[in-house]
Write a structure and sequence with these properties.
By secondary structure, this protein is an alpha+beta fold. A hairpin with a 5-residue loop joins strand 7 and strand 8.
Length: about 190
Amino acid sequence: MPSLLFRRRSGGIAVTCAGVLALSACATPVHLTPGAQAPDPICARVLQKMPREIQGMKQIPTDAQGTMAYGTSEAPITIRCGIAPPPPTTDRCLSVSASTSKDGEKDAIDWINPEAGSELIPPHAPDSAWTFLSYGRSPAVEVIVPAETGLEQPTAVLLAMASALKVVEATKHCVGSTDVVGDRSGS
């Protein structure tokens, strides 16, 4: 009797395993190149804190360390942790915070949004995509949001990621022309 019971259970396990393998084979991972600093333990902590869904798009598998993707494999939102921190730039910088308190500025994550033709746009980014690079944090994070996702506000992706990025300590912040101290008029 015990051997018959074992056979039935092991047969059920085999069917279950075959079903799981068949489903995972259907999900083609998004091909990404890992950043040079992807093995940094901070990247693992960032990715662990990422939401399972962003703007109604679920996580989909990737094939590289320190990466995540959301949406569809045809036009995924891609995230790479471990890229080289971007240098100071005149490209647009956004400060994104999920906090609504007065201390929201302290909690803000600075992101560079490179303009068309900028050397900061990675070669793998589609022409119609928005690119965002975390600024003042090492390792840095790259986010690419293709226009094909249909998101009206691609910065909503950054807002969804804000708490995960707090894991990486800010050592620099964006400054604008109005942040410069002193009068240059000469008077």
